[in-house]
Amino acid sequence: MTPILGCIADDFTGATDLANTLVRGGLRTVQLLGVPNPNSPIPDVDAVVVALKSRTIPATDAVAQSTATLDWLRMTGARQFFFKYCSTFDSTDEGNIGPVISSLMDTLETDFTIACPAFPETGRTIFKGHLFIGDQLLSNTHMADHPLTPMTDSNLVGVLQRQTSRRVGLVQHSQIEQGADRIREAFRTLKAEGKSIAITDAVTDDQLHLIGPVLDDLALVTGGSGIAIGLPANYRRAGLISETLGSDYVPSVAGPSLVLSGSCSAATREQVARFEKSWPSHRLDPLTLAANDDAVCRAVEWARSKVSDGPAMIYASAPPEDVKRTQDALGRAEAGALVENAMALIARALIGHGVRRLVVAGGETSGAVVNALGIKGLRIGAQIDPGVPGTMTIGTPELALTLKSGNFGTPDFFEKALRAMP
Ligand code: ADP
């Protein structure tokens, strides 16, 4: 069986978010990490999501990686393609959303697609082309001050138009509300005006479902994970997926359990505090790491002595005042790299000592751990909390793995994940 849908995501946790949506819609899904090697085996699933790290690299590199990935996805036999970016449309006037969409359209020789980052479940809605986060226009939120992709304009038609020579139009929510035929008519009108990318309004999941059937006409769909909720129904209607297969089934992995937390986000700190009350926990202090060569070894030895009796946690998570003190002493990037590197070494050593069930908190921290373990792909299992599925690695090391970005998850997330993951 060949995949039906081939996806390119511009970052790691965004890829997992999309994969989670597809699995919930009934598609058996794997996530691969990095541009696939031309000889990479084709997974026997309904959807493949390739996670790149292309959001903030130079646009020419993002285009090269995305088109190389598309070439491989086409080779798998996939019939439709998806470019996933952030629901806050993280980009600059140089790109990378516009240049990547344009080059994917060139490769697929398609003359029309949509750009719909709406994700109403998390408060990202598009109304008259303007992106809102909760009740605020995008440009009135913290995204205006983002260090890499400051979003100071909420009008997505304007934002995307500055990134591409293709002409960008708008399909308004009043048209969406009238259903598939009206949306198709709006697409035809835009094409007749010489426009080839449509920002598509969506304020509710119902509106995303109204757009769903129309996506069947497009070789390429682009947006956040929200717009993907309409795709599985199309494939089901076409008889391409089975109703009976458990799309979220992944085999279980037995063995000692470990939590690694390098996230300092508020939700994670609450989760760390909660877990620490019940299970052995070891704090990694970046200043000690910087001063002391054997701090990593001591953490590894500590965990080895605990994990045979039950789960244990190693964490660097700290409140903002501690993080600031550390950054003042070591430098912001240096402190981050020091902790990420330590977490990566600890993960590798403890997997070597038999740990098989691993929860990692923090987007960058997850990236560092996955790279250090040489993990090439993940089978996506059932959702643990919104945006966070349980997964199992493809190939070696064989692990049950949960990767959680900072602000996701309920306060009892770590225990819940260890219970729920395969
Ligand atoms: P999140 O998903 O919450 O943003 P990340 O892992 O992406 O988490 O980012 C957290 C960053 O903070 C990482 O680079 C990590 O190494 C760093 N870090 C973790 N603990 C500390 C600390 N105590 N002081 C300074 N930096 C830290």
Overall spatial form:
globular
- CATH-defined fold name of the largest domain: Rossmann fold
Name the CATH architecture of the largest domain: 3-Layer(aba) Sandwich
Oligomer: single chain
The number of helices is 15
Instruction: State the CATH superfamily name of the largest domain.
Output: Putative sugar-binding, N-terminal domain
Small-molecule binders: adenosine-5'-diphosphate
What is the CATH first-level class name of the largest domain? Alpha Beta
The number of distinct structural domains comes to: 2
Low-confidence stretches at least 5 residues in length (pLDDT < 50)? none
Count of strand segments: 18
> In which order are the strands of the major sheet placed?
9-10-5-11-4-1-3-2-16-17-18-15-12-14-13
Mean of residue pLDDT?
94
Question: How much helicity do the residues have?
Answer: 25-40%
Radius of gyration: 22 Å
Largest sheet: 15 strands, mixed
Q: Estimate what percentage of residues fall within beta strands.
A: 15-25%
